[in-house]
Write a structure and sequence with these properties.
By secondary structure, the protein is an alpha+beta fold. It has one domain. The chain has a 4-stranded antiparallel β-sheet, covered by helices on one side.
């Protein structure tokens, strides 16, 4: 028997120095505006991540924290995962799906 598992990786945010393009640069007062702007973007990004997490967990997905991501998986073919995302209003995440097939011990 072949088990199909679908994975989805949801990017949260990167390293502050890179997100703000501030690494090895002198900062002036105008940098405060960049900090505020990124704060607003991160607020929306993290609110969306919380929404995605709640919806996928409710549909039986498993979630694990990564360094910069939340990684989800479910033992379903990718077609079913796409259908679930569409039904949950998360169709914009379909391009992030990846399917892995694995032979189970029953095949051996």
């Amino acid at each position: 028997m072949v088990r199909k598992t679908t994975f989805l990786s949801l990017w949260l945010f990167g390293e502050p120095g890179r997100e703000l393009d501030m690494e090895d640069k002198e900062l002036d007062e105008s940098f405060a505006d960049k900090l505020e702007a990124l704060g607003e973007v991160l607020r929306e990004t993290l609110r969306r991540a919380a929404d995605v997490l709640r919806k996928l967990l409710a549909e039986g997905w498993s979630a694990y924290g990564g360094l910069y991501t939340i990684d989800f998986y479910k033992d379903v073919p990718i077609e079913q995962a796409r259908k679930e995302l569409r039904e949950l209003g998360l169709e914009d995440l379909e391009d992030s799906l990846e399917e892995v097939s694995e032979e189970t011990e029953e095949d051996v």
